[in-house]
């Protein structure tokens, strides 16, 4: 903490980034860096404001991690990751849950989850450094709205960039993902806060004193570029799309939202209080949904997929396999629930899937034909028996064709698919119901 202006000073820094006062070395006043008076006046007027919601968010993240760690049963460790079962149970983002099971709250809960203790410490230290500035400049109500909106934007960006067919080459893999693996962390929201401060420093540069111009705006560019470089190096396990989504959404919010200038009264428009309440309620409802579904089983195929290498040799195979698995899911839903809403998109994805070999193309076309038959049968209100043997209904012709096709597809996965996947073991994802 700077003894002159009260700003938070990062570990190892020799000077306060806001007022420029030396925080180490000789304490004699003749040798101490003298900050300009306008910076000191502005800093004291702003930085004396409270930052209670920064502390609240920090405590909430730590509390959730302790719960996850206790449920995991793992011994105390800095680097050991929590099991995927625990991350998914607490609401980590995975596209399958959002697309197929419609668990919308997974756009909210990931910003409060962390993979291991080191992940938590790094993000909470960043929150402790950046959060107070945003909360003191904009007020607690706007700060809470910023945190939730940029966090959701980061998760949404992560959700939209699970595109195996586009993750070709190092630059594309910086953003796009080759597999639908669990994603969690507060870094999307943290990048959002950085985006807020970056645009704040540029937008209000004509009224800010020199110290704040150095600390925010273009002064944040080295930190932003450093973190993006780290993300590029670690693109196999760092969710860069979430970081960029948070950063851009924070920048947009700062463009359209004003800040609390020194001397302004502490009152705030009722609109922001309402938005703050909505944001807090959204988080609360999301975690109520987590509690309701805490004991739901995690599909084994998803856990197996998460355990696969982050960068397989052939992303085209992953794109093909996902299209085939989604198509099988659509077929089962059409036959079992008489719901054909997913068939058109499944057929479209099959058409867009890359060609691997002659047998793979044949299997794809046959599955496409089965989907269209199932759709025609439902539109014509023809009886299509459920493949669920427990219901006692004998399988009809289309179901028998699907089961025969399934056997051939599984055989191809065990033999011909090995030359395309680049994996030692291929795990077939059964359609879940």
Explain the overall architecture:
This protein is mostly helical. It is 58% helix and 0% strand.
Share in helix:
55-70%
Distance between the termini: 55 Å
Average predicted local confidence, pLDDT: 80
Q: Would you identify the regions where 5 or more consecutive residues have pLDDT less than 50?
A: 27-34, 306-313, 385-395, 422-433
Our Rg estimate from Cα atoms comes to 26 Å
Strand content: under 5%
- N to C succession of SSEs: HHHHHHHHHHHHHHHHHH
Overall SS class: mainly alpha
How many helices in DSSP terms?
A: 18
Number of strands: 0
Largest sheet: none
**Shape estimate:** elongated
Short description:
This protein has 18 helices and no strands.
Ordered list of secondary-structure elements with their pairings:
Layout: H1 37-47, H2 52-72, H3 84-89, H4 95-99, H5 117-138, H6 140-160, H7 170-175, H8 187-203, H9 210-215, H10 221-233, H11 240-256, H12 270-292, H13 300-306, H14 315-337, H15 343-352, H16 358-379, H17 397-414, H18 418-421
Helix pairs in contact: 2-5, 5-6, 5-8, 6-8, 6-11, 6-12, 8-11, 14-15, 14-16, 15-16, 16-17
């Amino acid at each position: 903490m700077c003894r002159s202006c009260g700003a938070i000073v990062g570990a190892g820094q020799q000077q306060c980034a806001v007022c420029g006062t030396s925080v180490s070395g000789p304490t004699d006043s003749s040798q101490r860096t003298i900050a300009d008076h306008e910076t000191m006046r502005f800093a004291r007027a702003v930085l004396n404001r409270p930052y209670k919601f920064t502390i609240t968010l920090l405590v909430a993240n730590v509390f959730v991690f302790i719960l996850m760690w206790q449920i995991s049963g793992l011994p105390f460790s800095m680097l050991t990751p929590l099991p995927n079962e625990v991350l998914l149970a607490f609401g980590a983002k995975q596209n399958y849950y959002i697309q197929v099971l419609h668990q919308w709250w997974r756009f909210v809960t990931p910003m409060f989850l962390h993979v291991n203790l080191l992940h938590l410490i790094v993000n909470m230290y960043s929150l402790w450094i950046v959060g107070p500035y945003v909360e003191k400049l904009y007020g607690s109500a706007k700060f809470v709205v910023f945190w939730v909106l940029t966090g959701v934007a980061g998760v949404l960006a992560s959700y939209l960039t699970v595109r195996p067919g586009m993750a070709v080459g190092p630059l594309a893999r910086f953003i796009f993902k080759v597999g639908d693996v669990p994603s969690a962390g507060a870094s999307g929201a943290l990048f959002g806060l950085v985006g807020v401060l970056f645009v704040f420093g540029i937008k209000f540069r004509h009224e800010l004193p020199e110290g704040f111009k150095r600390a925010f705006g273009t002064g944040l560019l080295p930190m932003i570029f450093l973190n993006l470089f780290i993300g590029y190096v670690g693109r196999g396990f760092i969710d860069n799309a979430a970081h960029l989504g948070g950063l851009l959404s924070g920048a947009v919010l700062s463009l359209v939202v004003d800040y609390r200038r020194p001397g302004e009264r502490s009152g705030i428009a009722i609109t922001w209080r309402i938005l703050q309440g909505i944001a807090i309620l959204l988080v609360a409802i999301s975690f109520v949904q987590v509690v309701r579904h805490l004991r739901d089983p995690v599909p084994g195929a998803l856990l197996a997929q998460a355990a696969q290498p982050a960068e397989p040799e052939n992303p085209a195979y992953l794109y093909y396999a996902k299209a085939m698995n989604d198509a099988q899911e659509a077929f089962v839903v059409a036959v079992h629930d008489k719901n054909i809403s997913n068939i058109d998109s499944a057929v479209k994805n099959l058409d867009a899937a890359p060609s691997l070999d002659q047998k793979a193309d044949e299997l794809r076309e046959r599955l496409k034909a089965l989907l269209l038959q199932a759709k025609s049968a439902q539109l014509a209100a023809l009886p299509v028996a459920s493949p669920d043997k427990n219901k006692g209904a004998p399988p009809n012709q289309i179901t028998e064709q699907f089961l025969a096709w399934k056997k051939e597809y599984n055989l191809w996965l065990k033999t011909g698919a090995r030359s395309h996947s680049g994996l030692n073991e291929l795990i077939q994802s059964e359609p879940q119901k």
